[in-house]
Specification:
alpha/beta; Rossmann fold; 5 domains; seven-stranded parallel beta sheet; six-stranded parallel beta sheet; 30 strands; about 50% helix
């Protein structure tokens, strides 16, 4: 690191903290401390006089927002003693707008709901609820779609051409996620679908067939092609009776031919015939393309109208999705009617906008930001890049090299346009505080070759400057893997890669590679690596099953942390197979696959015998063959599936999952795994998500399966890692997207055997800048302009995949291991990620080749082994320990004084009548405190009248009784006993007239005093109605509104309540270290109060 580089980096950091009146664009490289810069600018703005709640800091994730708030709060507390502005900011911080873009949009919509066209109170559905709501809307729309006469022909032509209803749904999903782009492109008069007119084509076909007369040899291959293939096609096309059949035939013909000998076609020339055939095939393709273009545009327009109507309905109902928040906020700010006033109000409310991770956010963000930051009254009518903003109002932070969320509408071109148009120049943070110098050197050398500036699709590479040194033990950068034969199957390649990853992990632990724990002074404290220091990053989950198997076989503990990976693990795949078999008995593949899982344990031999010997059916609703033994594993599995299938109509999907997990012993089977806790965590995660799906409106098992199938896709918005278990020492497996923003001591890049630019499968929708939409349903079904967008799209995808590799590489702190397993290239031009990294990064001066040959190092024994034999207790012994544990766990940690009194009352074995009265006495109804009670009820129990009297005595002046009538009315209303005000007043007045209260009023006293002290293994707690000083000690008073008829009954109640007062006295002695001089029970009746002393000298045993 040169002094000039260091000065440039420090100058940028100084500008962030000091240049508060300029609009700055900070390009912060990986690990360069951008969060510290954000905190520094926030603090500097506060100290300059801007209130904390007038600053909006917009982050990419909720986790990043929480971290930012925590670090700002820490810094404000540090400065608060000597800075009044920081003290004020601390008080206002909780109301500051620090959160995600969607949270900020929701905040400004809440503040201006009417202007946005929303109900004053609206709700925002989470991702699960939004998916369920979409499916409900889609089912209604799909029913109407099939009944719409105007769409009958387009649908028939689509289905005849290979289209499916699922394709239309997938287009609708894409439209819904981008509805703001859709509504601007709807053609109110879409092109009509023409009839499939093949008359000219038939004429040309007949003319070409007639050319066969020019051939002099009937054995000529071209002659046979004309008389067989072309003639047959012409006959079938002529015989087609409707447009469905005609458009289907247009996709079939292979009319072109390069066959035929020139000597047999001397009168016309063989080239002329071939050319006419090629023209015919092109004519068929052109006619089909023309028809399908109009079909797709007509249906897409119908889907667009459905999308726009759905967005309007959500807005009017006040039930929004995440994307609605952004679009409605933007639209409100651009409105000619409400925009100027709202912009003015928000500009006063949010004086500064700090935009973090700007490279990965929705383009709508920049529109919202510049509209708030501008004082231009015409801003609503201008493109965002032409809107003039006030200097210093916006602060941008991001790194274009880490832009990896195109599938969520992130636009790197927008990033660079904003940098150039709104600022004109940017600051660079190059110092990296995360990663060791050898890794930084390799990253700079490698990605300087890969990330090369290219217009608005790829930024120039900016080198990082290392702050940290190299580890003491272990290679900083290492490659594993080799080149394989090109004929090696893909699965075998992935298996070998996974085996090497496993070996590399074992070697890192066995050789005790050094990893650093950084102190607050940024000093490295080196120690040997643990399992949890290692993270395996995958670009996709394709290779996960192979990696799992390899880690299991080598006894390496691991956790798949990203939700998309959870759904790809073996046990969850098996669970979903069983669910699918339960739902659909006719799905033979699902039933057989379910029977082969560990849940049923049927081997292939069992399945073979069932089918061949017993002629059994895979349909579990069919009768079981009589000759099949009842104990046969397949018969038992089929019978169980049959039973739960019939019961599923009365069970929710989560209940079905729970039944499967319990009855098929998924939890118990986990004990056979080396890490059962990890499996339990994944099962709980899936069941919890199913319950959330139900709460959002999901209902049937089939709907749940469809929803669950989509949870493993990269495009799923909820890609946050599942709840981490920090005490679990295990290797972590994450997708690269899931690892964004994280760092790990040791990173292994795996799953790199797939091509950099694979052809996407399934439905794609693009929105060209010009107009309209480009749609592809399948390889043979797309709009004409889809292929026009393909070159640009492929370039953008390729550039993003290079940036994805950069993000993955910069997650490492101390060691980086790259898998370079690849096949021989030959003449192949498309490269895999492994080949790209190997070609650019293979430099023995910067990286080692990890030698994995030989026996792996001996590792410390893993304590959590499920398959090893142990000394297990007998069933009776285990049951006794289990019951004792349940009893201990069910015992409340917090014990109230009244609960003790109830327990003592039950132990005294009073006569049946007295016992019933005592134990069920309302005065002993004080359970544990309920922190959710309203303030006026805290500490009060018993009957409603008794609680009301306690409430009055808690608030009224004890000396004068001032406010008694009003307090009685308020407490009667609070307790729901309106009309009993006179009774309450009479009881309270009796207390006020008593000598006890009169004395307490003249002394220091406290009312509704909470006491809590250690008691056994828990806490003894309660509320004392009245505590006052009397001479050198304290007196405890407890009010009772019980009814009694005789002195005997009153004595019994005194004995009953004595335990309660003894507990209070002990608690007071322990907590305040003062002597308790006495304890009194004050029994209240209208017009009289009876005081009975309780001896508390001995305390409570």
């Amino acid at each position: 690191m040169t002094s000039t580089e260091l000065e440039t980096d420090q100058a940028a950091r100084d500008a962030v903290a000091n240049d508060l009146d300029s609009t700055l664009f900070l390009e912060a490289g990986a690990g360069s401390g951008k969060t510290s810069c954000l905190v520094g600018r926030f603090i500097a703005l506060v100290e300059s006089g801007i209130p904390a709640d007038h600053i909006a800091a917009i982050t990419f994730t909720e986790k990043a927002a929480a971290e930012l708030v925590d670090r700002i709060r820490t810094e404000l507390r540090r400065r608060a003693p000597d800075n009044e502005a920081c003290r004020d900011a601390l008080l206002a911080l909780d109301s500051a707008a620090i959160g995600t873009l969607h949270a900020f949009a929701q905040r400004i919509l809440t503040e201006h709901a009417i202007e946005a066209g929303l109900p004053p109170r609206f709700i925002v559905h989470d991702e699960i609820a939004s998916q369920v709501a979409f499916e409900t809307r889609w089912e209604l729309f799909a029913d109407g779609l099939l009944n719409d006469q105007s769409l009958e022909m387009p649908l028939r032509l689509l289905f005849a051409s290979g289209g499916k209803p699922k394709h239309l749904r997938d287009v609708a999903v894409a439209f819904n996620a981008n509805w703001d782009l859709v509504v601007d492109r709807i053609d109110v008069a879409p092109p009509a679908v023409p009839s499939v007119d093949v008359r000219d084509l038939l004429t040309d076909l007949k003319a070409v067939i007639d050319l066969a007369e020019h051939c002099t040899d009937e054995d000529d291959f071209l002659f046979r092609h004309l008389t067989d293939v072309v003639t047959d096609f012409e006959a079938r096309l002529r015989a087609a009776i409707d447009d469905d059949g005609r458009v289907k035939l247009l996709d079939v013909p292979k009319l072109k031919s390069k066959r035929g000998q020139a000597k047999n076609w001397t009168s016309i020339g063989v080239g002329v015939v071939r050319g006419r055939l090629s023209d015919l095939q092109d004519a068929c393709a052109a006619l089909r393309s023309e028809i399908l273009e109009s079909v797709l545009q007509r249906l897409a327009t119908s889907l667009a109208q459905f999308t726009a109507e759905s967005a309007t309905a959500r807005r009017e109902a006040g039930e929004l999705e995440f994307h609605d928040l952004l679009v409605l906020a933007r639209n409100m700010l651009r409105s000619d009617v409400t925009g100027p006033d709202v912009r003015r109000a928000l500009a006063q409310r949010y004086e500064r906008l700090l935009l973090d991770e700007f490279q990965d956010t929705d383009p709508v963000q920049i529109e919202i930001a510049v509209l708030i930051a501008s004082d231009d009254q015409e801003a609503g009518q201008k493109h965002w890049s032409a809107i003039r903003t006030e200097p210093g109002r916006i602060f941008f932070v991001g790194d274009p090299k880490q832009s990896i969320y195109r599938f969520r509408r992130a636009d790197i071109g927008m990033f660079m346009t904003a940098r150039d148009e709104l600022v004109g120049a940017s600051l660079q943070l190059s110092r990296n505080f995360r990663t060791g110098e050898p890794i930084i050197d390799w990253v700079n050398a490698t990605f300087a070759k890969l990330i090369v500036g290219d217009g608005n699709s790829q930024p120039e590479y900016q080198a990082l400057l290392a702050e940290r040194g190299r580890p003491e033990i272990g290679p900083p950068v290492a490659f594993i893997g080799r080149e394989h034969d090109r004929r090696l199957p893909a699965d075998e390649l992935r298996s070998q890669e996974a085996a090497d990853v496993s070996a590399a992990i074992r070697q890192a632990i066995g050789e005790a590679w050094s990893v650093a724990d950084r102190t607050s002074a940024r000093v490295d404290s080196w120690r040997p690596a643990r399992w949890s220091d290692i993270a395996v990053l995958l670009p996709a989950r394709t290779s996960l099953p192979f990696l799992e198997r390899a880690l299991d076989e080598t006894h390496i503990p691991f956790r798949a942390e990203t939700s998309s990976l959870v759904y790809g693990t073996r046990e969850i795949r098996e669970l979903m197979l069983v669910v699918r078999a339960v739902d659909d008995p006719t799905d033979s593949l699902a039933v057989v696959s379910a029977l082969r899982t560990t849940a049923f344990g049927c081997g292939d031999d069992d399945l073979f015998v069932w089918k061949k010997r017993y002629r059994g059916s895979w349909d579990h609703q069919a009768a079981i063959p009589e000759e099949a033994p009842v104990a046969h594993p397949v018969a038992q599995g089929i019978a169980w599936l049959s039973g739960i299938h019939r019961e599923r109509q009365w069970l929710s999907p989560s209940q079905v999952l729970d039944r499967i997990l319990r009855e098929r012993r998924f939890y118990e089977l986990a004990a056979a795994e080396r890490r059962p806790r990890d499996l339990w965590r994944r099962l709980r995660f899936v069941v919890d998500q199913c319950r959330a799906w139900e709460e959002a409106g999901g209902s049937t098992l089939r709907e749940y399966l469809q929803w669950a199938e989509g949870q493993s896709g990269e495009g799923t918005r909820v890609v946050e890692t599942v709840l981490p278990e920090t005490d679990d020492d295990a290797v972590r497996i994450l997708t690269i997207h899931g690892a964004k923003g994280l760092e790990f001591p040791i990173v292994i890049l795996s799953g790199l055997t797939t091509q950099m630019n694979p052809q996407p499968r399934g439905v794609e929708v693009r929105f060209p800048e010009s107009a309209g939409w480009a749609v592809k349903l399948s390889k043979r079904l797309s709009t004409m302009d889809f292929e026009d967008t393909q070159p640009v799209e492929e370039q953008m995808d390729h550039h993003e995949r290079l940036r994805l590799l950069y993000v993955a590489s910069t997650r490492a702190r101390d060691h980086l291991v790259i898998s370079a397993h690849r096949k021989e290239r030959g003449t192949r031009t498309t490269l895999t990620s492994a080949e790209v990294l190997h070609d650019a990064g293979w430099d023995l001066a910067l990286a080692n080749e990890l030698d994995l040959v030989g026996e792996p190092p001996r590792l410390p024994r893993e304590p959590e082994g499920g398959s090893e034999l142990r000394d297990l207790p007998t069933l009776d012994g285990w049951q006794a320990v289990h019951d004792a544990a349940l009893t201990s766990a069910s015992r409340p940690l917090a014990t109230s004084a009244t609960r003790l009194a109830r327990a003592r009352a039950a132990e005294k074995a009073l006569d049946p009548a007295a016992g019933k009265t005592a134990v069920g006495d309302p005065g002993l109804a004080k359970g544990a405190r309920d922190i959710d009670l309203p303030p006026w009820q805290k500490g009060r129990y018993g009957s409603a009248i008794g609680r009301a009297v306690h409430g009055v005595l808690q608030t009224v002046d004890l000396a004068t009784g001032t406010g008694l009538t009003a307090a009685c009315a308020a407490q009667a209303a609070a307790e729901g006993v309106l009309g009993k005000e006179d009774v309450i007043r009479a009881l309270a007045q009796a207390a006020l007239d008593s000598e006890v209260i009169k004395l307490a009023a003249t002394q220091r006293h406290w009312r509704e005093v909470y006491v809590g002290v250690p008691w056994g293994v828990g806490v003894l707690e309660g509320y004392i109605d009245l505590l006052y000083e009397d001479g050198g000690g304290l007196v405890v008073v407890d009010y009772k509104t019980d009814a009694w008829r005789t002195e005997t009954e009153l004595d019994a109640k005194v004995e009953l309540y004595s335990v309660q007062l003894q507990a209070y006295a002990d608690a007071v002695r322990t907590s305040v270290d003062r002597e308790v001089a006495g304890a009194l029970l004050l029994f209240l009746r209208p017009g009289v109060a009876v005081a009975r002393p309780v001896s508390v000298a001995a305390g409570l045993s």
